[in-house]
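Deviation from plan, reported transparently: zinc ion complex.
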Amino acid sequence: MQFNTYTAAGAKIACWLVNHPEPGASELGRVLAGYDVHDPEPTSAQARRLRPWARRLRAVFEAAEVADKAALADALLVAAHCSPRLVSHGPGLPFHLHYAPVRTGLTARVQAFTAAGLAHLIDSGHGGRLRACERDGCPTAFIDTSRNGRRRYCSIRCANQVNVARHRAQTAKPSQPKEAPTESHRTGTQTTPAPSRNTAPRPGSTVLSSRPDRT
Ligand SMILES: [Zn+2]
Ligand SMILES: [Zn+2]
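Because the crystal trials were delayed, the predicted structure below was used instead.
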C-alpha cells in the first residue's frame, strides 16, 4: 500500500505528532526535515504551540467512523486556515503545493500541512486507515498501510500481547484441567512489561513507514 509521497507526508507528520504530543524543538525539526518541509527548524515556542494541535489530530485517529474522521479533519482545515498555493522556489524548480504561506510561520504551516495530509488521505478513500491501536492502554496512533487495511494494533508487540492474553483467557476457562497446572502456571503468570509511553516509535519505524506491515 503506497500513498502519494508528498501529500502522505502531512498525514505521517500528523501521526508522529499524535505519538509525540510534546515534541522538543530539535526532534520536531529533524522529523519535519525528514519530510522535506520548507524551513523546518522550529523554536521551542513554536514546538510548544503545536501541543493542543496534536490533541486535535489525535481525535481524527481515534474516531471510530470515517464520517467522524472527515468532519474532524474538515474542521482542522478551517482552523488551520489551510489555503493551498502552487509555489516554486526558483526559476526551473518544480511547482508544489504549500498549504499555508511560508511567512505565516512554522506552527501555522505544520497545522495546515497536517490538516491537508489527513484530508487528502480521507479524500482518496483511505480515511479508515487512520487508526488508534486497539490494545487497551496503548496510546499509539498509526496509519494502516497493510494491503488488506485490517491492521488493528500499532506493532507486533501489541498484537502479541493481545494474543497472549486471549490465549491465557481461553486456557484458563476449563475449571478442572486433567493435567497438573503447575507448568502452565509457572510460565503463564509471568508478566510482560507494559510498554512505556515514552517509547513511542521513531519516525521511519514501521508505524510511520509505508513498507508492508508485518501484522
Ligand atoms: Zn516549498
Ligand atoms: Zn499498540
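Residues 133, 135, 138, 140, 153-155, 158 surround zinc ion (ligand 2) (CB under 6 Å). We consider this an acceptable substitute for the interim report.
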